[in-house]
UniProtKB/TrEMBL annotation:
It comes from the Bacteria. This is Uncharacterized protein. The lineage of its organism: Bacteria, Pseudomonadati, Pseudomonadota, Betaproteobacteria, Burkholderiales.
Length: 103
């Protein structure tokens, strides 16, 4: 599996098996979030974000996300969050949001 970054318009075939070859690996114990869903990016205090697409890198499937209120360091490093400036987050780095959970 190539390590290059690649965007996907829809969720490509994937598996949760970390030893699988020639198929993208999803590193979470929950389903891949749909475009438009909110997730929590747990790493580095990034927080709540909207899923705007899908991408793969290094054999792993991830979601392209737009953080709602990223830390100041994130904005300095990446620029203002927008769909054109989305951040790649892998399954192990995010948590789903329960439908009854508030902002």
């Amino acid at each position: 599996m190539k390590t290059r970054f690649r965007r996907h318009a829809t969720v490509p075939p994937h598996t949760r098996d970390p030893f699988a070859q020639d198929v993208f690996k999803w590193s979470a114990d929950f389903e891949v979030p749909a475009i438009g869903e909110d997730v929590i990016i747990r790493i580095n205090g990034i927080g709540r974000a909207k899923v705007v697409g899908y991408a793969s890198q290094g054999g792993y499937l991830g979601v392209m996300t737009v953080p709602y209120t990223p830390p100041d360091w994130w904005i300095r490093q990446n620029g203002p969050p927008s769909p054109d400036n989305a951040a790649l987050a892998f399954g192990a780095e995010i948590s789903p949001i329960d439908t009854g959970e508030g902002a």
